[in-house]
Amino acid sequence: xxxxxxxxxxxxxxxxxxxxxxxxxxxxxxxxxxxxxxxxxxxxxxxxxxxxxxxxxxxxxxxxxxxxxxxxxxxxxxxxxxxxxxxxxxxxxxxxxxxxxxxxxxxxxxxxxxxxxxxxxxxxxxxxxxx
Length: 131
Fold this sequence. Notes:
The chain has about 130 residues and is α/β, with parallel strands linked by helices. About 50% of the residues lie in helices and about 15% in strands. It has helices at about 10-15, 25-30, 45-60, 60-75, 75-80, 100-110, 120-130, and strands at about 5, 20-25, 40, 90-95, 115-120.
């Protein structure tokens, strides 16, 4: 089944069902820890993530989303192309807490015909699961 789904099931079940796990957090977040076997295809650079996060806290969600869209817009084709090796695989996509970054990427991938799911709770849920 192709489409966009949020993974609300058990973390272990979702990991077992995935054929590839994609971490869309920044390179620095990935370096601090990741799901075993995950591939890092960051939506934002370290600096972009810091800037957008600060904007989110200080100004609000709309401003942060606008800045995020502006940051990704110019390189959207290249970002989508990075997923080409995973075209025929069932993907599990996650970010820090299963929030906006992974949801946006899952939505984008689904619109391109990928079988992508979001890991609800993100890396935080994974850490809780393994601990």
